[in-house]
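Intended use. Records like the one below are meant for learning the mapping from a protein sequence to its folded structure. Do not use them to infer anything beyond what is encoded.
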Amino acid sequence: MNAEIYRLDEQFDKKMRELKKKEEYLEDNLSYVLHTTEQLKDEVYRIANGELPVEAYPDIFQMDTNAELFRKDVLEQIDDIGEERSKLRWDYEEQLDALYKKKAKKQNN
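Structure written out for the chain above:
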């Protein structure tokens, strides 16, 4: 019985670590993209000496739009990971309860 609980704990911990790695990867990429976008915009402004030609404004706007869409997508993926984490925790607790009930039933017989 203890071996089953240990195996269940190991599987749960492994899956939780995998989800944490996915979440950290997404957060790192989001930070990188947003930072790089801001650096690129700053460089464009620097080169233009603060006076962008009118033709450049749609491109700057598109950069902001793309960064925001990426941010939204990443945050949705992080929310999905949170939901997956909750489901994993619920499944783990259900399986653990079943093992303890099985153990109690054996002790009563």
